[in-house]
Amino acid sequence: MLAETQDNEEIIERVAALDIGKAELVCCVRVPREDRPGRLQEVETYSTMTRPLLGLADHLRCLGVTRVVMEATSDYWKPVFYLLEAHGFETWLVNAKDVKHLPGRPKTDKLDAVWLCKVAERQMIRPSFVPPPEIRRLRDVTRYRADLVAVRTAEKQRAEKLLEDAQIKLSVVASDIFGVSGRQMLAALIAGERNPKVLAQMARAAMRGKITALEEAFTGFFTSHHAFLLEKMLARVDAIDADIAALDARIEEMVIPFAAAAQRLDEIPGINAIAACAILAETGIDMARFPTAGHLVSWAKFAPGVKESAGKKKGRNATRHGNSYLARVLGNAAVSAGRTDTFLGERYRRIARRRGKKKAVVAIGRSILVIIWHLLADPGARYADLGSDFYDTRINPEHRKRNHIRQLEALGYTVTLEPDA
Q: Which of 169, 353, 365, 377 could form a disulfide with 330 if both were Cys (CB 3.0 to 4.6 A apart)?
């Protein structure tokens, strides 16, 4: 049965393709001949310094090039992409896997550029998502904040290992050794205090009930060597805390144009203000790039990959590697939502019981992405929770009855049902 497709077979008349390296790039341009049917092709090498790139932009404009396609090579594509974008070209960034040359063929930078140009002029590739400049700037700040949080966590882990080396078991007693009580105790250790009773008396609030355990925890072999290293580690943690606070203030300032969207995302269980800003920085606010929620889920790699041959599915039905920064935020949001008395929380617990926590995190992350798409696609939409009793109140009573009967019969009972008068 023949069906209409949405393929567009139009050939791009004037197109350029770039094979980009750190020091230089190879540009292949294909344009139509003026005197007779056919194509003209030009392959040139340019330095990636600013002046040669400006010359490249002028040359492409003189040739009437409308679309410039390039591979996502490390971070080397960014300055070229941004410069050509600012000069009014339709710039496409494509996945290197989508334009990989046929196996067994010679491979050089020039051949790669020619192959990419031929594929691009026939529109056999799709552009990757590159957010607009204001979102890119927000993304730079949110990603740097995420990196600093990871560095701070690593520094805290080093400090905990140092305490273990000195037989100081503070982390066994205190859930957070870098809280108010913990920091005061660590500062006293650095200052030279070694008496476990004195150190334990510095506990505050709920930790006052653990005085005896703290005395045992501080009975160790903490020396001046450990004090020197611990002082440097805590100084690093404090410096990173100050940097993160400065980044938070910067993010709050940069997100003002998108405050309404961030506020709507903040209403989703598991997502706070910082997570909402990080999500906007990764997905942008214009959902026209993603025609449906499924497109956004697929782009974020929160949908299982499909690999089928001869009617058989091959490989594991697992998700692929996508945007690591977005995946980290969605994973944390899914775990946080799992602790709430909401629809997402109940859905997380139901899946975790049957399939395990890892699959539950991916499933709830996907659900959150679908919600995000609807909230950003419709500026007037607001999040409305379905309630933790959604499954109990909407499951077919007959289906529940059959399940209970089957379970009781498996235990050896004979079940007779009588409707309640």
A: 365
